Amino acid sequence: MKKTLATVLTASALTLGLSACGQSQEEKEAAACEAIDELRTTLADVGSTLNAQSTVDEWRDARFEVRKAIEKAEDRIEEADEASWDEVDDAWDRFEDAVENVDGNSTPEEARASLVDDFAQLQAARDRAASGFSC
Length: 135
Known about the structure:
mainly alpha
């Protein structure tokens, strides 16, 4: 059973790798544009739920939603233009670190004050990444 599973996994990985190699730059950019749009939607949705009364736990929940979108977008954007992804990734790392480091006993106002700029920087990095493609 292990040998069969290993064979199937190896064949699947090889197929995925070969199909990615065969993509044209236009196909890579189209996939990146789709990923950038999905990330924009997630950031907008999350941003609309965060306000001056948002608790630290709500910011942490928001981080989880953004992480899912980031993980989904990463390969597609990076494959089309690594430099565009690097800025988004750096902004994501700063936002994630800020959320992790905010004191759980912070008031909503304190949490917002320490996190809103990093969230805005993540949105701006996504916008700059989008401008690098003909979406």
